[in-house]
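Hi everyone,

Forwarding the result from last night's run.
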Amino acid sequence: MTKKHLITCSVMAVMVIISTLNICSVPAGKIAVEPVKTPNEKPLVPLFTPPLFVLKNALADEEYSFANETLPTNDARVKHKLQRSLQKHDFKNVGSNMLQSKATQWFPIIEPILKAYGIPDDFKYVPLVESGFGESVSSKGARGLWQFMPGTARTYGLKVGNGIDERMSMRKSTIAACKYIRSLYSEFNSWTLAAAAYNNGEIKLAHAINRQSEDNYFLMHLNGETAAYVYNLVAMKQIISQPEKYGYKPYLKPAELFAFN
């Protein structure tokens, strides 16, 4: 009886060991029990949905850009505002090649200064939009090629007063403008917004951004002049770089310029 009992126990022990080995032999990565599948199971929805409005995309026309920021011309409102600015600056409405002749003579002075201060080359069109390279004085007191207000001019190193007005100096005012633009870029982290702030002032633009919870220039609601400002810069860039496309004759002879120090 004892021997039979020992044999029975041995057989049972062997069976337990074999059973254990079978359980452990399931390959790694395989699930022993298949998950229950529902016939109408829907795919998971991603947590992040890309915005509908993207500054740069395949549909945007890269011909139109400012400081390497492409205008989203696939947006109907943006395209309309751009076309309006281009029409405003074509030869039919301007009727003069004066801007081209001034740009030809003065850009060689402005461009290396912009480069030295790390400012995008497209900012050279600011004086054309602001003053037309003229001696204009705004109703608020802004003067010179870069249309500096007296206080801002002094802040960025220009002498204004006592018979001296360095806002009229091409080289000195351009250096001051570079310092100011670089400061604006540091605040807004966008060259487009820096340009808008140059026109409207950083305090007003900052208030608009906070009030609208929006920091994309092309989506913001701004006063008429500032809302058109970047479009005017792009339009100026177009007529200077491609004059014949906008009805201007090829540039032949520089026109006489105002005498800046």
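The first helix runs from residue 2 to 24.

Cheers,
N.
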